[in-house]
Amino acid sequence: MGVLRVLSVTMGRISTFRSYQIMLLFAAALAVVAFYYFGSEKQNFSSTTKRIKETQASHNTNRDDADLSIDIRSGHPESRTGAGDEPEGKPSRFHALMMFTKVDKSLNLLHKFQVAMRSVAKHGRFLEEEVLVLHYVSDAGSRELGEKMLPELLLDATFRYEVVFHDVGTLTEKLFPIVEAMQKHFSAGSGAYYSDAIFFLSVAMHRIMPKELKRIVQLDLDLKFRGNIRDLFQEFNHFPAEAVIGIAREMQPVYRHTFWQYRKENPKSRVGDPPPDGLPGFNSGVMLLNLDAMRHSTLYNQLLEPERVARLAEKYHFRGHLGDQDFFTMIGMEYRELFYPLSCGWNRQLCTWWREHGYGDVFQLYYRCDEPVHIYHGNCNTPIPDD
């Protein structure tokens, strides 16, 4: 009887509902049934929540990877070090220059060129957005030869590169007015190899190259790389505030000999003495030229003036024959702050000529290098060891 009474009351209440209220109740009932029925077949509330969390975790992981990639490849200080400071959005360019004249007329120079380029290709490693720009100062015949050979020599390179040829005649014409006065102090004489103005290119490159070119590495042809050339550009990071050039010391007693008169008159001077405490002079086989710093250095540009060169040459009784190397050595005796000393491993000179020409007793003091070798320099036609 109680059940019949409840049913009767319920039916009475339902009968008082309007038709649209009945429809709402019916729709709500269907929604509940659908949730439980279909959820049991596909995904319920818990699985949906889990999927959302997994998606968010995956998104966060990918975001972290992207940030790390940006930090390493774009934002890390080393990603642009030594490059030409290209405008944002353009590839970072690392500029290297070689003298490349008379190669078409000399099998010896041709062989050196092949060794150098193959070693650069073998050991060179750059980031994807970076470009190694290879500059060659050449005559017409050497340029034609270089254009034919470079694609094969750099075939195994894993990095992007560009090649730029500079006409030796055009550069010499621009250089001559700047370096004419110093040639008599640092050249072997009229018609000699180093008497040509082009062999003072590094001295005044900042004045004749476009201002957009801010840093460049100048390399001799008789080199063999044993490490990544990109690492050489990282040495620009270590330049002191006033330094404009990175260069390694001379590893023979060349300047002990050249400064003999000054040393005799100044027996307590360190000029020409061996490392670590002496001033043995520089070797120009590998040079880092901060062209931007050279342009802005009042001191360095004053030292290019003929009267300053003459005054220093007179003071040191200097008469050389090695072009830019002699100039840098002479001013380095007086103004060491202009130079950043490269490790001997970045220019491991192999020539031993002075050991057999009067300096055998002190030769090893200059020649010793305990640093890892990154570049061999086969100067004075010395054979370079195999890898």
Write a brief structural summary.
GO terms for molecular function: xylosyl alpha-1,3-xylosyltransferase activity. This protein has about 375 residues and is an alpha/beta fold.
Notes on the structure:
This protein is of the alpha/beta class and 387 residues long. Helices cover 47% and strands 15% of the residues. It holds the Pfam family Glyco_transf_8. The chain crosses the membrane at residues 20-39.
CATH architecture: Alpha-Beta Complex
What sort of overall outline do the alpha carbons produce when their principal axes are compared? globular
Q: CATH superfamily name?
A: Spore Coat Polysaccharide Biosynthesis Protein SpsA, Chain A
Helix content: 40-55%
GO molecular function: xylosyl alpha-1,3-xylosyltransferase activity
Transmembrane segments: 20-39
Region (Disordered): 48-89
InterPro entries: Glyco_trans_8, Nucleotide-diphossugar_trans, XXLT1
